[in-house]
Amino acid sequence: MSVSRREFLERSAALTAAGFLPRVPSPDELGRPIAAGAVGASAIGVPFRGRPVVVSSANGIRGVKVAYDQITKGTDPLDAIIAGVNIQELDPDDQSVGLGGLPNEEGIVQLDASCMHGPTKRAGSVAGIEDIATPSLVAKAVMDYTDHVMLAGAGARKFALAMGFKAQNLLTEKSRQDWMRWKSRLNAGDFWLDHNDDIKIKFTTGTINMNAVTATGDIASVTTTSGMAYKIPGRIGDSPIIGAGQYCDNLVGAAGSTGRGEANIKACASFLAVEFMRQGLAPEAALIKTLERVAAMTEPRLLDANGRPKFDLEFYAVAKDGRYAGATLYSGGRFAVCDEKGPRLESAAFLFKR
Description:
Shape: globular
Helix content: 25-40%
Structural class: alpha+beta
CATH class of the largest domain: Alpha Beta
Number of strands: 13
């Protein structure tokens, strides 16, 4: 039975109103946040047309270019951004990620990472893994080759070796010296020499998060870190936790974080940012509301005299339509982005002015 275009549209409108079909956005909504409209477009077989974008923490300025170039050549978005973060993981001078990362209090480098692949709705994670410089790739291997999402500690290391990853000493001489300086100040009565001419003890909660969307709207996210410097052995931050260190939904967008992981975990903040985008907020507005939740969930001992968190926390997000943002608790932050204009650092939005 033939149906006229008008009859088809009228029936579709009736079904949508009744809740049986997702609503397709009208032309005047095309510039608005991606939410139900993205589902509607795919549901009726209309190809999604967006623009490729890669966004990350500022230390990913080299990586966003690598990832963007790969995406525009047809590489899967997760493979592309993992290639991007591998640059930092393998850089011995980046003491917050991978090789050369600052160790725990016993001088052992323990790494965390997680990733999500929007098109297939899969995720993988490793926590507290030792001797493997690229935990992001191990997290992807967990995703690709197991029925699990997270592996931790010795089990994660054993799995990585079985998958062909090579073990190596991750503690560089530079990081070892910084650890020794930190250790010398732990106890005035110990036998370590305290050199007063030393620079301030190096400390980091640093991480690299990277998120990407392709021209066809496929999304991926990854976060990798060596965690809080000189942490208690076994401490796990937000980076390997799906929904905290990063999160993505192929219908909406992706978000990830760097900074104080404990604060992020309590708010499930990366998941929350994506949910705010699902509700219709633009990436920047979604990140600011997420930071408001983080501040509201901060325990009293970590608040200053003005009732503001004593720490900082940074978020990065990309929407399915290619809009992006970075936002921090305090002003002055920057983040990396690459699109058709090339790689660059941009100023992040913020919740509080310093």
